Records
---
Amino acid sequence: MKKVALLVSLLQCGLWAAPILVQTDEAGIRHFVEAVQTPEPVKEKIQLQSGWRTFSDEVDAAGVLVDKIVNLGKKFWAVIESGRPVVNVNTQYANALPTGVRASELEGFSQLQFKSFRHQGVNFYGVTVYDVTYTLAHRYGGKYQGQGAYIESATVLPQEVYVAWGYKVNLEVAEVSTVNLGSRENPVASIAMETRFRVQTVLQDFQLNHLHEFRGDRAEISSTEVQ
């Protein structure tokens, strides 16, 4: 596998001027990834999707524990299956809330924050065989009775999906975990979300995994390639 040594650090800061070559496989397909700007129409579309206004009615029976962070949303879900966006993907999301509290009971959440990635595959002849753009989105900074920094929702949404005949592209949220990065008196929620981007043909199988961290006290999303 041919990789650029600075890929991890570049993903963490989300800054580079051109696509980064992450692998050239045995069939000669070059796989690229880059962080891209999220277009305003995409932001508006996400903001209008009804799933972002849906709060879970399920709460922990243990009572309210502001320093114990729980996810009342999903722990894994498909984003793209066999080259097509999943139909109900806009209702799939995770959150990081105090135990025993609904998201609707918190206040002070930020506006939606966005971070987008583009994955491309180019063959030996310079022809693009897949071109996929997806967006991470979340709301942070919620407080419960003036305390803490929690995450209302965090998700991955497909934007542009092109896949040539003979190729199969899948993108999934493979795992979600939550933790308190702050103190008992001032909790700071964190969501670690692993995504798996996979391209398959009858001869090749390419997979790129990323770990994305959403924090309750900041807008930035950190992203790191993982094996």
Note: Residues 7-226 form one domain.
---
Amino acid sequence: MHRRCSTRRQFLRSMARASAGGALLWSLPAMPLMAQPRPRVLVLGAGLAGLRSALLLEDQGFDVTVLEGRSRIGGRLHTLDDLPGRPETGGSVLGRSYLRMQGMAERIGASLETPAMGHGPKTGPCKACHAQGKVPDRRGGPGSLIAWRGRMVLQGNWIDALPELSERERQTSPDRLLATYLAAENPLQDAEAWTRAEHADLDATSLETYLSKLGATPTALQLMDVAPNCPGLSKASALWALRDSQRRAAAVGGLPLEFPEGATVFIEKLAGALKQRPITGQVVASIASTPEKLVVVCVGGKMYEAEYGISTLPLPVLARLKFDPAPPAGQLAAFREIACTPITRTYFRITRPFWEQDGLPGTMWTDSALERIFPLRDPAGEVVGLVSHADGPGAERLDAMDQEQRHRFAEQVLAELRPATKGAVEAVASVSWANDPFAGGAYPFYAPGQIGRLRPMAAQAWGRLHFAGEHAAITQPGMEGASESADRAVAELLARLA
């Protein structure tokens, strides 16, 4: 009895640390810590945060029902198995510091491997990239092809391309320029520093203004405004960008990992570990929290009841829901005002090895609406397709088109940038996260002033409902952040019952 109580106290202390933003790995005891029957819990959303929340709750003896609006599970983790290279629509690689993700993979028997990088030890020399420039690429390969204002420059020759840049800026390729500026003298010294009031001045400052104060030249600002992971330097809080920089610096620790079987297989194995498979096609319309229960009504009238709930729905989705009673004004403002970065990916099938014609690298960084272009490879490392990744203004331009228009436009842009691709590539699919009604964008970003005003309210418990999802993460980015948020939401619920 004493041992069980001691274990429970240790567990709740660990959960309290998770709730405060500390580390909690996938090491919870797979058994209820209290003997009495546990309440029923509804989990809204069957993405990574939702599935992890459900598994943690089931381990503690809860009766869990997971509702998913899509016809599939996984959220932004989804493999396009029918396309060359089996590309991912969202998350694809894990940092070595993603210990929660690695722990989940071990628990469910999902494999993780170092990805084939094309010119790495796994596949040998890259057959689609060559023409090394003046300055060797830091990753050991030939680097990217840079398209800027009608010019094509090898990454290794960038140092001589734009004399109007400062010496420091000319030594950094455009795809690394923003990260280099943010990493220099980052005032955030730990993963929770961005949540503290002492940095309110950085929150109120736009990223563009912050970079200008650091000495960024006008041309460098224009370069950094291409693919900035937000709708534009002037629209983002400097504190938000510095938070991402601090997270990336803390995550350094060796080569990344990927799902060799695809993210969809990983998600299916997670769902297979649940006692009850998520119920798909259940689009939440309204949520009511009464003194006795939580009531969720879906489009079509289907009703679900439980004692408590955890929502992992993205903020743009929460902004459309009807709540009874209404959440506090600050929380509603957080749902409605914190935006998500638009990201659009276009996938190409290769019909001819165009790189043999022009002798240029396969990876491209461009000032076009396609922005960044990467080769897609088969398991042997052979290039079988391309994917363009646009965020911010580029994505918004693509999102204004229907899919057929987008595909033909993408082919045209690519042919204009690189004539050797004309007739050699075909756009066959595209994914717009901003146009996805179940997402509203890829991940949240904060405009100037929003972190101090809205962030604390975004994941605050409302009635019998707790919140998880990437927007609720404190210390970790991406998939690990979604996992962290699940730990915190479960911690809140268990502490509430304790």
Note: The first strand starts at residue 40 and ends at 44.
---
Amino acid sequence: MTSSTPDDDTAETRAARLILALREQGVTDMKVLGALEKTPREMFTPDLFKERSWEDSALPIACGQTISQPYIVGLMSQALTLDRRSRVLEIGTGSGYQTAILSRMARLVYTVERYRTLLGEAEERFRKLGLTNVITKFGDGGIGWAEQAPFDRIMVTAAAPDEPKALLAQLKPDGVLVAPVGKGPVQQLIRYAGDGAGGFHKETLCEVRFVPLLDGVAREL
């Protein structure tokens, strides 16, 4: 048995270790794992945390927000059951990391961010990665993007205090929405699957900790 040394502990080997760990935790969709492996997480983390980019942990970014734990990114992406025809709405662009993962599996990703600073930085990352199927919007994510609805899939990356009815209304009858829901510091990650007749089958996936979904756009200094 051999062990890695600092010299061969490259981003590629760190990514491989992370993917193995995610598989052991139940993220088994090969499309999701492939998207995670191909997306350089270090591009989305602040300089202070570059060395921790491939850890399976959430990390702080600007504006008091976070880049989600890779396991949660993988779990939520897997729960969406995406294919290359999917039109996806993402609420909360943040660093753009989750957006980039979605863009590698869907036809189009519409993403809304309430912090103009975060959105500008994410857009620059999308350009550098050549992601041409991402459409961005500075706005209130809680009200969705009605002009582009209905969507095949919706992902919410901030905790809705209650069932996100305004977003569910922008979902196709057989669509899927995944969101953390709850008012406290710990929320339930819930998958809503349309039954084709205006109702939804609800499944609780796990407990999570997300920043809250806030109304309006942020006022930045």
Note: The first strand starts at residue 59 and ends at 60.
---
Amino acid sequence: MEAKAYLRNCRIAPRKVQIVLDLIRGQDLKKAQAILKYTSKSACEPVLKLVNSAAANAENNFQMNKDSLYVAECFVCQGPTLKRIRPRAQGRAFRINKKTSHITVVLKEREA
């Protein structure tokens, strides 16, 4: 049994989110929440909300014990890129790509 939560079109580059997800992969729920709360990365706030959402899904939808949950899987995929234009010298325009992320977190129960 597993509980999932998804975050689509998050306005953070996938490279930055991947650093945070590597910190919590395989950790117990309480430890993962503590890591996310006290790490100073911009991706920690949306990932913490996502982990809490997955924990609520596990508890309410699947009647899983919250104390025995751990982060079984977490990964990020690139979402659609927002293309913006920056004016440059002599009438030129340079493109700025604002990347987005699709984040997935999967929680499972540890075997006793």
Note: The chain has a mean pLDDT of 96.
